[in-house]
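S1.2 Input.
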Amino acid sequence: MIGLPTDTIYGLAVSATNDCAIKQLYDLKTRDSCKPIAICVSDVHEIGKWCELTVTEELLDDLLPGAVTLVFKRSAQLNANLNPGHELVGIRIPDHNFIRDLCRLCGPLGLTSANISSETSCLTVNEFSHLWPQLAAVFDGGQLGRCDPQRLGSTVVDLSVKNSFKIIRNGCALNTTLEVLQNKHHFMRL
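S1.3 Output.
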């Protein structure tokens, strides 16, 4: 498990294929095992491997990379021990070269905020220094928050129903996400 910068806040990441690492992530965060974590991939063309796409690649390119987590029905290829009991999965491609390069090297990552559940999200590595002893590495990307100064995290949007969407979490990219979905692609809000 590592601590690393994203395009919004600092995150904790593990291999999405490593059951032991996923469990350690939940334990470290004291996160309810029923609360799913997103996966992070490097490029739009990888998304269809891990979920059942209901949107065009054009829409994906309009939203990603960016501060948006897209939710779809999970595919059979996704590790069954990642978010067991959930038919949906959130997929993220941060607009940050370091994490995208890491995904290219390591495959999909389980990704969540670098904090104990219900604590404030972090914009510097020092804000989660109490977690460092339990991490294999911490990558300092400097002060974050240029795109997310309020520490809202990514906007989470469910796209599992064709031609419609549901906002799960407003996040920091709500306005641009709504613009793309409603005005450019004419999706209906559920």
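S1.4 Remarks. The first helix runs from residue 19 to 29.
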